[in-house]
């Protein structure tokens, strides 16, 4: 039976101030004590995690179509550093400043495992973003979350990603990743949905389920095109994503509300995803001063560093805000927007499910709060 999409009806009340929001939350939890422990677990996880992102290397062993890193010139923006002593000193500074979590991207981090090691040795929560072509070993990286990119699903994934730097092509990239990470609890596939690949969504998710991994949805934004966020049939794309999520609730960790916001860019309060609300920016950059001051939440202390381990980057992805619907930026936007979910107990429960699903993506979070995995597997659309 096909899933019924959530209804994000036009609704745009003013956001309550901090004091009003605290009172409302306290009242709602008094009426719904079953939510109180869940909210507390979410808050405890949030207090543990102070996040950053690091471009570990500018080198990659493939060239995906639509890869913002290379199409945006990030590989040439700063000089890459391979000095392990410098990298260790950088990680020590992160640790001393209170950073506990690092997402390591590239380029391709599995090509430079010696640069991953200092982060693993010093910080408790590490996520490695990889294309899946080479495995991240288990020994020495047992508690690392592994996020594997996947574009479109089925044969479309090879069409979009299986391109070597010299321009030649190959096949079986997704299958190779499955082989590297069979029954590996560290792994979440980050599946970028493409309207052209809707017929591949169910069999691709089924393959991930059969392989003993989990998956979260992303949005395939074809950078370099005139309209990278264009979807001809938004309702069909959304319905298929929700239908597959219903079929595989233990495998698809994406919450239904998140899926709708990811596909449409919209929320129940009338908000639209974009620079003015995106919280995943390097908050100390001077060019973000007006954004930080506009009243919409940001991730406190969040910073993205280039491959010289010094230069602050604009944000967690491309900086092309008009063409971005990055899954983690969208998810984080919803999680930091608790104040928008305080108009009813049902809306608060939706936010709790969203936040639990967000944390469920990462293996290190599951180890500290295994209840997230149990609860989000049975979550349903409100």
Placed side by side, the strands forming the largest sheet appear as: 6-5-4-3-2-1-7
Fraction of residues in helix: 25-40%
The tally of helices reads: 15
The largest sheet, given as strand count, sense and whether it forms a barrel, is: 7 strands, parallel
Low-confidence stretches: 1-11
Strand % is 5-15%
Q: What is the arithmetic mean of pLDDT?
A: 90
Morphology call: globular
Element-level helix/strand string? HHEHHEHEEHHEHEHHHEHHHH
* Total number of strands: 7
Amino- and carboxy-terminal Cα gap: 17 Å
| Helix/sheet category | alpha/beta
- The gyration radius over C-alpha positions equals 20 Å
Give a quick rundown of the structure.
This protein has 382 residues and is an alpha/beta fold. The protein has helices at residues 18-31, 33-48, 68-71, 84-96, 113-122, 154-161, 173-180, 201-210, 234-247, 256-264, 289-293, 327-335, 345-360, 363-368, 371-377, and strands at residues 51-55, 101-105, 125-130, 145-151, 187-193, 214-219, 304-305.
